[in-house]
Design brief:
five-stranded mixed beta barrel, Rossmann fold
């Protein structure tokens, strides 16, 4: 059973509307929609914005609902000049870019006392996502890449260059790496799928509201195919 997490209504509402035999559980102020889509059991939830909300949500999906895999869907800002608005990034790994314990001698992004801080996505889920994108017939490019997450909207050229140069990130958002972190600790497969809503630079604040809905729509089409093929 897949657990599908989106931060905002626009990222999950259309998936929830297609579910059958729906049961809703409210836990930690989040509504978890458990139902079937194309005969497959799934739990869909809006976690809210930010790493803490996302991590709590992911843990509930694992501990309460016993999902077999976690999928994070939504939008992101591009850090890679080859990845344009409405293109889709399927995560190869995810890292928390705002983890900074350099004062104690750690490199930026390193989480103390953990054996890794960059969490690799599940190869089977990556393949499923890419195959599902092809099946969905999306008129955009599909990239594999590194997702970097932090509790900060990236909207300046300087911030974009920093994340690209420091972490080699391909897109930036605010939840994926904390879901990956939770998945790693629970030995649960995960993948992050992000459609690009802006270029994470000086025009991001203008691009984001313009392209958010279209980008989310592409991501949702891909997710629907993933559920059917899982």
């Amino acid at each position: 059973m897949l657990g599908i997490i989106g931060a905002m209504d626009v990222e999950v509402n259309s998936i929830k509307s297609e579910l059958e035999n729906v049961e809703i559980k409210n836990i930690a102020a989040m509504d978890f929609y458990k139902g079937t889509l194309a005969g497959k059991e799934v739990v869909v939830v809006k976690c809210g914005v930010g790493k803490v909300n996302a991590a709590i949500c992911a843990q509930i999906l694992v501990s309460v609902f016993g999902v077999s895999a976690l999928v994070n869907t939504g939008v992101a800002g591009s850090l890679n000049n080859d990845i344009n608005i409405c293109d889709i990034v399927v995560s190869t790994s995810a890292l928390e870019h705002d983890m900074d314990v350099t004062a104690l001698g750690y490199a930026k992004g390193v989480i103390p006392d953990m054996d890794q801080s960059e969490f690799k996505a599940d190869e089977n889920l990556i393949k499923l996502a890419k195959d599902s994108a092809e099946e969905a017939g999306l008129d955009v490019k599909i990239f594999e890449g590194k997702v970097v997450s932090g509790d900060r909207f990236i909207g300046t050229h300087e911030a974009k260059v920093y994340l690209r140069d420091t972490f080699n990130g391909d897109c930036a958002e605010m939840e994926g790496a904390s879901i990956a972190h939770t998945a790693y600790l629970n030995k649960t497969p995960y993948v992050v799928i992000r459609a690009i809503s802006d270029k994470a630079d000086g025009g991001a604040q203008m691009d984001y509201p313009t392209f958010e809905a279209k980008a989310a729509e592409n991501s949702i089409k891909l997710i629907n195919c993933m559920i059917k093929n899982y």
